[in-house]
Amino acid sequence: MSVMRLGYVHLRVTDLDSAKGHYGTTLGMTETASEQGKVFYKGWDEYDHHSVVLEEGGVGLVKLGYKCETSEDIARYESRAQRFGASVARMSKGDNMAVGDGIRITLPSEHTVELYSDMEHLGTEPGVLNPESWPRFGRGVSVPRIDHALLTCEDPAMVERFFMECLDFRPSERVVTDPADPELIGTWLFCTNTPHDIAFIKGGNGKFHHFAYFLEDTSAILRAGDIFAMDDVPVDVGPTRHGITRGHTIYFFDPAGNRNEVFANGYITYPDFPTITWTADQLSKGIFYIGRELNERFTSVVT
Amino acid sequence: MVVVTVQPDGVTVDLREGETLLAGLQRLGYLYRWGCRRGGCGVCKVDVVAGAVGYSGVISDTVLSLEEREGGTALSCQAVPAGELTVALRNDRLTAAAPWLLKQAISITTQRSDIRQGEITK
């Protein structure tokens, strides 16, 4: 079994109270715990303890957690990551609230990724016995779950190789400078059946571009946009469609300036999915299929 | 009202008390380069030429360091003028989002001779 999914995104925020307004009230996540300077959230369709951790002080990504099926999987990934030359440390149950033993990898891109196989189970409001389709009194966007993250790095080819060789991810889509002499400038990688569970584009090491919430469909994307207008959330781009992943999207910013996305649709992937290639001259269509214009903000704002 | 002059074109605007530079310039119909509008990215940094700014919220020192603040850099999406202020955009100029919006702004303040004419007469 490969890595199961993106389990948590741990971000820094400058002000915890305004961040709680955004993630709790506007997006409608449920606060599941808090400790000094940190707050833990989950979406309504997530049954594990949390999927978003906000830590007060600064801005940007602290780490991502990917959940594996078993501790044997983690042991296999640990030895592969060490052989690759990545820095790997053990983490113990309790190092992260509600998270069991695992490993902490420093990627070639200088981002921190944790692998774990156990997190305290909280369940969902609809439950698992004759459940309703969604929580009747959800708040705001009422996001069901997180979906993926996009990070920047100096060497996307190296990071892609790490995820493929060490963690059994596969590339769904790639952006290259020139097919005849390709330099990889972006890679979208999956471990589930979605178009991507993580992606990297060329940029500074250790930087965070965005993480995304899954929404059910396009009308949910438009409804989210209405709520951003009501709550005066700065929107970066959208609603529009991506050429890459084919998803429908809006990008927006949390109160600290971290970029979030709401994402719906997109295709299904399988282990035999044939990788799609985009050339750099078509990048604007790949990123924003309808408008076909990259804005400077989208390409330059990272936290 | 707080009088703010924006270089390099010397555009002068009246901001409301407590209004950030970005919010005021947007309200009056101006565009320039900005990013997240949340103080997280630093894309909208400007140079303070004269006067001072303050911040009501917390600004990450990874976005705006103490040295930058002391050296006269302001994060325009969060900075509130502390009295009459002159700032300079960095490799950027004000443009008009909509000519009619700008005309409304002109009726509020009068010193407009130095706005790029092409932008407002279209």
| Biggest interface, chains and residue tallies | A-B, 23 and 17 residues
CATH H level, superfamily name of the largest domain in chain A: 2,3-Dihydroxybiphenyl 1,2-Dioxygenase, domain 1
Tally of domains of chain A: 2
| Oligomeric status | heterodimer
Return the CATH topology of the largest domain in chain A. 2,3-Dihydroxybiphenyl 1,2-Dioxygenase, domain 1
Instruction: Name the CATH homologous superfamily of chain B.
Output: Beta-grasp domain
How many whole angstroms does the radius of gyration of chain B measure? 14 Å
- Helical stretch count of chain A? 6
The string of secondary-structure elements of chain B, in order, is: EEHEEEHEEEEHH
Shape of chain B: globular
Number of strands of chain A: 17
What are the SSEs and their pairings?
The complex is a heterodimer of chains A (303) and B (122).
Chain A: E1 5-13, H1 16-26, E2 30-35, E3 38-42, E4 52-56, E5 60-67, H2 71-84, E6 87-91, E7 102-106, E8 112-116, E9 145-153, H3 156-167, E10 170-176, E11 184-190, E12 198-202, E13 207-214, H4 218-230, E14 235-241, E15 247-253, E16 259-265, E17 276-279, H5 283-287, H6 296-300
Parallel strand pairs in A: 1-4, 5-8, 9-12, 10-17, 13-16
Antiparallel strand pairs in A: 1-5, 2-3, 3-4, 6-7, 7-8, 9-13, 10-11, 11-12, 14-15, 15-16
Helix pairs in contact in A: 2-3
Chain B: E1 2-7, E2 11-15, H1 21-27, E3 30-31, E4 45-50, E5 53-55, H2 66-70, E6 73-75, E7 79-81, E8 85-88, E9 95-96, H3 99-108, H4 117-121
Parallel strand pairs in B: 1-8
Antiparallel strand pairs in B: 1-2, 3-9, 4-6, 4-8, 5-7
